[in-house]
Amino acid sequence: MIRFLAFLVLFLISTHFASAQKKEQASQPSGLQFGDPFILNYKGSYYMYGTMNANAGIKVYQSTDLKNWAGPVGATNGFALVKNDVWGNTNYWAPEVYHLNNHFYMFFSVEEHIAVATSDSPIGPFVQEKKSPLLETKAIDTHLFIDEDGRKYLYYVAFNNGNLIWMCEMNDDLLSVKENTVKFCFGCSQPWEFSKKEPVANINEGPFMLKHKGLYYLVFSANHFVNPDYGIGYATAPHPTGPWTKYKGNPIVCSNGEVTGTGHCAFFNDNDGNLNVVYHSHFSPNEVNPRLAHINQCKFVPDPNGGADILSIMAPTLTPMLKN
Description:
It is a single chain. The chain has one helix at about 1-25; strands at about 35-40, 45-50, 55-65, 70, 80, 95-100, 105-110, 115-120, 140-145, 150-160, 165-170, 185, 205-210, 215-220, 230-235, 245, 265-270, 275-280, 290-300, 310-315, 320. By secondary structure, it is mainly β. It has a single domain, classed as Tachylectin-2, Chain A (5 Propeller). The chain has a four-stranded antiparallel beta sheet, with no helix packed on it. A hairpin with a 7-residue loop joins strand 15 (about 230-235) and strand 16 (about 245). The model is unreliable at about 1-30 (pLDDT under 50).
């Protein structure tokens, strides 16, 4: 009888913990786990790249509906880019991929430098014929913008008492930059960019350019990516090189009680012609990693005060899911 009671107690305890574990697991998000996400829309399919397995390379996932994602589908064991094919050995971050000149160009960060690799396919393999960084300067978070006149601008983040956004012009080969075109854009200046929550850091990063009605919108993220107040804002200018004026209503995306650490975004048009934004958040209010990718539709709305149109990020947030 004593043995039976002991077994019953142990059974009830184990059942309780198993049930609690199932409830805890069920409450955790199960979306696509990507930091610094970027989406390429190519021939009706969507390809998402981002920061994951950062010491091995860059993976890519594929979707036809922006909700269900298959993969990783990269040409090299799921990776679109692997470190043996390019310069550097660690910290492969923040890729962006463009289809230009009948080739695919991947701009990425590696060992706190920026680089570009090419491929004949969106799934890779992306390689460098000349294994070298694009700039000697330490920098991360590259973004390519090609204006209507064909001029090519590269925006990136360099370090000088914090993360600051800079830019330069690129040559038509997209593999080199024009000398003497490097220019400072901006750093932290608005109150929301100086969060006192840990970790505290002066950071403007993750630049992305949009052009609307002849005005240039340079979208960026501020605060340390581990800080729950990591968020998204933008600045406008009459020319790709500035001068820049930050939107007074920043941030346009920030923690809302359901998601925290929202930032490092990229924009793309879906198959219906709608403007969308993809960005990451912390895994949960208590855990930063693995970060989760989110997608929202966007639109420009009139400023009731008569200023430039406002870039508005629309609800709801769609969390991409992996196909089983």
